Amino acid sequence: MPANLFPAPVEIFRFLPEIILALGGTLIMVLEALTGDRQPKNALGHVSLAALFAALVAAVAVHGSPGPAFSSMLLVDGFATFFRVVVIAVGILTVFSSYRYLSREGANTGEYYALVLFSVAGQGVMVTANELIMIFIGLEISSIATYVMAGLLRDDARANESALKYFLLGSFATAFLLYGIAFLYGATGTTNLTAIRETVLRADGPSPLLLGLAAALMLVGFGFKISSAPFQMWAPDVYQGAPTPVTAFMSAGPKAAAFAIFLRVFVTIFEPIGDRWEPIIWVFALASMTIGNFAALTQSNVKRMLAYSSIAHAGYVLVALCARSDIGTAAAMFYLAAYALMNVGAFAVVAYICGKGEKYVGIDDLAGLGSRRPAVAAALTIFLCSLIGVPLTGGFFGKFYIFKAALESKLIWLTVLGLLNSAVAAYYYLRMLVVMYMREPGEATENLEPLPAGLRTALFTSAAGVLLLGIFPSRILEFAVQSAKLFGR
Amino acid sequence: MSFLGWFLLTPLAAFLLLLLLPREQEKTIRVAALALSLAIFGLSLGLLAGEPRETDLAWIPELNIRYHVAVDGLSIWLILLTTLLTPISILISWKYIDRRVKEFHAFLLLLEFGVLGVFAAMDLFLFYVYWEVGLVPMYFLIGIWGHDRRIYAAVKFFLYTMAASVLMLASIIYVYQRAGTFDYPAILAMLASGKLTFTSLEQTLLFLAFFVAFAVKVPLFPLHTWLPDAHVEAPTAGSVMLASVLLKLGTYGILRFCLPMFPTAARENAGWIAVLAIVGIVYGALVAMVQPNVKKLVAYSSVSHLGFVILGIFSFNQQGFDGAVYQMLNHGVSTGALFMLVGYLYERRHSLEIQDYGGVSTPAPWLSTVFLITTLASIGLPTLNNFVGEFLVLQGAAQADFRWAVFAATGVILSACYMLWMYQRTFYGETPEKVTHQMTDLNGREWAAILPLLALMVWMGTAAETFLPRISAANRLILQQTTVNVPFNVQTPAPRPDVAAKEIADAR
């Protein structure tokens, strides 16, 4: 590879979204130091929004000049652009739903907004990475920022537990991933995905044993990051303890980015040994769906329930991965986009209801929301319908597309069991609808403040997005299908 | 987009329009909902005349999913029944629904949107979408405005239907995999020409997946347990829509999709299904007989009546099919009317227990007369509607297997027992003090709601030729499609070029 220390302008351009995000984050930290303690920090939130929107525009603009950057360390293709847009959108929605929550908790600091930007920048690096070291760096940038966000409320014991658990187990998982990377480097002599793939496909390629070992170690790392069973243990505690907007963020953004690298690595370099890992992913997928859904049935805390539901949804996406086809990859992409919207939306509602100190996070606290705040209830209904998989929502179409891909790959049992699982899931989502519409208002909903502007934007944008993905999925689907083809095979 | 394509979107437009109205203006909302649903009914009458009655547009081109809707003799009357019952449901809820008026009417229109779509969808994906969309508003109608155990009933209703239909979704995807299209006429054409064949095992499994989804909705014994709960707990309008329209989705689906797509499996399984249908007829009637709750009685009578429909379908002959479809309409009219009248009683006496009534005919003679006519229609008195349907079904069943007809006919006798006994205990005898106080006769609004149905009972009983020719024509086609081992040609619109190309590619 030619050592070119001075990247061409176009290469820098391809990295522009992450540059904007990193600069924005740094700017906020400087501004925070300059403004002093007593100032309201919403302005810093606005700066972070500006940076995120600029990054969004840049990400779309960069799509116009696809290709590698920085000695092929990064690769801007349709797949990368798709996930870049998803993670930036998650960042935007998170910031919108954070303002009121943070000022209520007295934690409206600039560092929070800077951390969101850094985390999103890390995820941007992850999804564009074409190189194992870049994957690792991106993952670390994203993860460390998220660990800090989880522990944002310093005086809250649960938040501390959450952050510590997330940090310890997360580092442990990253270590596995790094081991896998090391083995892979040892086996192939390179860290570039394209080069590794070429080596693997050669007749005198690395021994399947080494390759399998690397794949297994990386699978552990990825499995943790996407909270798939049997590495899902951390998710309920962490999701429950973290501040709600942070939970929204980490259940969508880092997860989508982790899935992006998971897909990229497994569908490109480990594709030749696909027959070996497919049964493992099959088990992971089924276990995630089943454990997630059945555990969610008995939860009484909304955040914990949504945590288990997010484990189940990771299982659905794994079904798509298990299909090992371009359609499967496209299905996973589409589903993750829909999932990000509906999940962030659902958590945004929780952030609205929960009150100071997250007093009202039980399912019963939603009682009477339907009559007190019909618009919020309607939005939550849309998200829940999407999580159940009712037609005309993005969740339904995504699920449909995933199981279509699975059936195409002859995964009949996985399809049948997965679909039955989604019928089980309907039960616990319905419980929320029941409480919301069919119970008399309780303490939590009696004294709700008017819906703040930021939350309103987050809620209705995600609801509109969920419906759009469900009713007119064509454009996004087409993009996903094309991007999935570009990549790997 | 042709008239039909636009027409099917009108309930959705009405739903959105209603959402825009301020929630405090309850009167405006009621009037608007009534006017809109009447307008939709008026438009639907246009379907009787206007041609062409088909719309076929690309919806999600990547997957070849189309907004393909069409109306034929099988669906036209069910569509008209739906559009007629929606304004009637709004009328009967005028006083009954007094809280969250806006949501109630909005959900009713959303329900109409889903149901009409199911009856018209000619694309399997579109069909599934409509099928599930109708589920959500009904869930809320039961769960918010129902009686005491409404939440249990609503959740049970939702989960039964949902669990049963996910396997149908898997089957739809499987059929798509094999056929390369969701377009139903194209699939039928491929089946007819032999380009698409299913092995015996495939047929059986696919048939069962579709059939169970539909059978839960019908409901066929022993999958009926959600129905009495849902009916008893639902508000009157919910019960009317549930009985008259939603139950028909199941029988319609069987006739429209199960039989033509999987004819061999359908015929092979006809035996036990017919037996279950007969068990349902007799069991429903016997359980109805011992019910102390009048709404539950009518609910179990539905199980019995729908058994006739299933029996007719699985007789596999023209009379059976015609009778089944006619019975679907009859049940919609007469059981819908029964639920309305029970609702009238409830609004006055605030009780559904038969023992709380007695001698109602003295204070409310017109109500009693109307109830009597409806009761007689329901038990199949000649010159009223149910007689025609039941007669055709029994004739069809007798042709298929005489024993079926014998056992099913006991259901007719039993229905006379439980209905007349209920009528006697409610309307005749001593008039308790409370009944005299509370029972007033029908008012203008109630007359307006019930009269169209009474007229239909007489009309359908005496002039079946208004309805039957279209039904028979559609059924003839379906019967032809289910003829096994005989080469048959299906008259369907020519497949579009893109589908044809895909067909050739997929032909094996």
Briefly, what is this?
The complex is a heterodimer of chains A (489) and B (508). Chain A is an all-alpha fold.
Task: Please provide a written account of the structure.
- The complex is a heterodimer of chains A (489) and B (508).
- Chain A is built from 21 helices and two strands.
- With 489 residues, chain A is mainly α.
- A two-stranded antiparallel ribbon of chain A has the order 1-2.
- In chain A, a hairpin with a 4-residue loop joins strand 1 and strand 2 (74-76).
- In chain A, helix 10 (234-241) packs antiparallel against helix 11.
- Chain B has a domain at 269-486.
- Chain B is 74% helix and 3% strand.
- Chain B has 22 helices and two strands.
- In chain B, a hairpin with a 4-residue loop joins strand 1 (54-60) and strand 2 (65-70).
- Classes of the chains: A mainly alpha (489), B mainly alpha (508).
- Chains A and B meet through helix 16, helix 17, helix 18 and helix 21 of A and helix 5, helix 6 and helix 7 of B.
Number of helices of chain B: 22
- Percentage beta strand of chain A: under 5%
Count, helices of chain A: 21
Terminal Cα span of chain B: 34 Å
Helix content of chain B: over 70%
The structure class of chain A reads mainly alpha
**Mean pLDDT over all positions of chain A:** 89
Q: Judging from the principal axes of the Cα atoms, what is the shape of chain B?
A: globular
The rounded distance between the terminal residues' Cα atoms of chain A is 23 Å
Shape of chain A: globular
Secondary-structure-derived class of chain B? mainly alpha
Largest sheet strand order of chain B? 1-2
Order of helices and strands of chain A: HHHEEHHHHHHHHHHHHHHHHHH
- The overall pLDDT of chain B, averaged over residues, is 86
β-strand number of chain A: 2
Strand order of the largest sheet of chain A: 1-2
Helix content of chain A: over 70%
Instruction: Describe the largest sheet of chain A.
Output: 2 strands, antiparallel
Radius of gyration of chain A: 21 Å
Q: Hey, roughly how much beta strand do the residues of chain B contain?
A: under 5%
